[in-house]
Design a protein that fits this description.
CATH topology: Immunoglobulin-like
Largest sheet: 5 strands, antiparallel
Structural class: mainly beta
Order of helices and strands: EEEEEEEEE
Strand order of the largest sheet: 1-3-4-9-8
Number of domains: 1
Helix content: under 10%
Radius of gyration: 14 Å
Number of strands: 9
Distance between the termini: 22 Å
């Protein structure tokens, strides 16, 4: 039986503190869950539109960033295995990414 695992994303070193000054990166809540053969990443990005979000995946390294007018968000995470993006949804300030094992 595979139980979901959850990991908190470590604070980005550029963030500086809980409240970022204009022009600095700000930390945002992010969760990683392993569900069988899938990885689900959920990130809260208040005040951001879908067009502002950038998702970079290189090997197992996932970086989510968003540049708003006054807020700049960024988080990096290492996925438990190399995976391909299966789905993406952004709704009410919450980004959900679904990854699966590449075949």
């Amino acid at each position: 039986m595979n139980l979901p695992q959850s990991r908190q994303i470590p604070r980005d070193k550029k963030g500086g503190g809980a409240e970022a000054r204009p022009g600095q990166w700000k930390e945002f809540p992010c969760r990683l869950l392993v569900e069988g053969e899938e990885i689900r990443v959920t990130a809260e990005l208040p005040g951001v539109t879908e067009e502002m979000i950038r998702i970079d995946l290189e090997g197992r390294a996932l970086t989510i960033s968003a540049d708003g007018r006054e807020q700049h968000y960024r988080a990096s995470i290492v996925l438990p295995w190399e995976a391909g993006l299966k789905g993406k949804r952004f709704r009410k300030g919450v980004l959900e990414l679904l990854f699966g094992r590449p075949f």
